[in-house]
Amino acid sequence: MERWLKGDKRFATTSSNEAEFSKAVRGEYTGITDPDDYATTSSSTVSKAKKRKYDESYISFGFVDSNDSPLCMLCTKLLPNSSMAPAKLRRHLETVHPECKDKNQDFFVRKKE
Fold first, then answer.
1. With the CA atoms of 20, 25, 31 and 35 taken in that order, what torsion angle do they form, in degrees rounded to the nearest 10?
2. Where are the alpha helices (DSSP H) in 1-113?
3. Are 109 and 59 within 8 A, CB to CB?
4. In angstroms, rounded to a whole number, what is the distance separating the alpha carbons of residues 64 and 95?
5. How far apart are CA 62 and CA 72, in angstroms?
6. Pairing with 14, which of 36, 47, 69, 111 sits 20 to 30 Å away (CA)?
7. What distance in Å separates the CA atoms of residue 29 and residue 72, rounded to the nearest whole number?
8. Residue 88: pLDDT above 90?
């Protein structure tokens, strides 16, 4: 604790372990020594992303499949794959196209053809 109170003069007389620790605290040390210590690196979060598949029931919300992403048939807006959850598709239909939210699945099937 006293090294923080006395200022930077103490860093010159510290041991190598303390110097490395102080560099890590100040953000100057960028090397990763043990990958298990840093489980939230960008490479590990990318591989854990859930990739949803298109389901035929999504046509009842007015969406068709377009290269593994939902495409709204009414406004031709291509949503990201993360928006393929039924609740998000329903929310798009109810907020952007409120006049079509009461339409049945046959309406969207005819519109698709």
1. 110
2. 2-6, 16-26, 42-47, 86-96, 105-112
3. yes
4. 18
5. 6
6. 36
7. 48
8. yes
